[in-house]
Amino acid sequence: MKAINQLKTFQRILDEYPAETPLSKFLPGFYRQNKQMGSTDRRIAGRLIYNYFRLGRALPDLPVDDRLFIAEFLCNSQLNSFLQHFKPEWAACVGFDIDEKLEMVKTAYFGFKLDDIFLWTGQLSAGINKNAFLRSFFVQPDLFIRVYKGFEPQVKIALTAAEVVFKDEGNGCLSLPNGTRLEALIANPHSYEVQDLSSQRTAEYFKPEKWESWWDACAASGGKSLLLHDMEPTVKLVVSDIRESILANLDERFQQAGLTKYQKKLLDLTQNNDLILHDYAFDGIILDAPCTGSGTWGRTPEMISQFDIHKIEFFQRLQQSIARNVVKHLKPGKPLIYITCSVFKAENEDVVNFIVKELGLKLEKQTVLKGYENKADTMFVARLVRI
């Protein structure tokens, strides 16, 4: 009976869920409207709906319930009562490795193809292992934090005392199980930042020097700026974004981190901002460009079924337009750090080629940060220098 009620709740969530809305924003509202749901009910409901979307575009004509059972089988490695109730023959095999489980699904459903989960593998950046990338959609990414210098012992003691299993990824980065309630475990909220592993690793491309002037052009809530400041606190920082509300979030985040000296500008970087930035010349520019976000869909699998391939071309044009308007404020011999959280070549290598050929910068290094190998986001980063 419990499993049947869980299925009914899942069906209600799916029926009420409005496309183009992140699940992370929709579910809290759904739970508030259904206060009878306890913490266990909410946890199971969340697992079911997220796992359902992890099946992506595969088997679109199959009934919703069947698609859910397949997703539960592929996404779980431990026995659960839901799968045991509806698919006991699969529940007994839930601990099999993913390749064995995929073969079982193919045997039961002849139309199933791994490539159908994510239909755009022909558009992937060079170096991405297609099979490993596709299989990663069945794995919940980890939660990553960056611990500020001097606080690592304190944070590790708190996590150990709470019996939270964590891994030290180096350079102050810790990985933890997704859903870990850090605010309830770590007394000092200013001792760490939540930030994905791949996002943290983009900092290896910054290489700031003392007293330089840097511009975080699409700063959002300031994660890259905080990395930069942590590496070199003397940097004179300008941050900008087109969204006033997110710059307000940046202010709050900077205040908590103790970053108080910076300039903030509300800018539309698709427009010419020479009148505002006419006297600015930067020693480094971080361009964490707006993109499809396809490298983060392991965290937001609902985006797979909502995606339209034409969005790739839209974002590529946007990225090129922004790059054209920011590089002219870069000093000769100084770096532009181009970053996306996309897996698509058109947003990554192709935009870098545009920056090199059309804007005259020299490419020093570029790489795909293969988060799918580490239960993290997949990102792209390039370091280019203005000649």
Q: What is the helix tally?
A: 17
What is the overall shape? globular
Tell me what the CATH architecture of the largest domain is: 3-Layer(aba) Sandwich
Question: Main beta sheet, described?
Answer: 7 strands, mixed
CATH superfamily of the largest domain, called what?
Answer: Vaccinia Virus protein VP39
**CATH fold field value of the largest domain:** Rossmann fold
**Kindly state the mean pLDDT as a whole number?**
96
The span between the termini is: 69 Å
At the first level of CATH, what is the class of the largest domain?
Alpha Beta
Q: Roughly how much helix do the residues carry, as a percent range?
A: 40-55%
Q: H/E order of the elements?
A: HHHHHHHHEHEEHEHEHEHEHEHHEHEE
Share of residues in strands: 5-15%
Identify low-pLDDT runs: none
Rounded radius of gyration (Å)? 22 Å
Strands of the widest sheet, in order across it, are: 7-6-5-8-9-11-10
Tell me the number of structural domains: 3
The count of strands amounts to 11
Would you tell me the structural class of the helices and strands?
A: alpha/beta
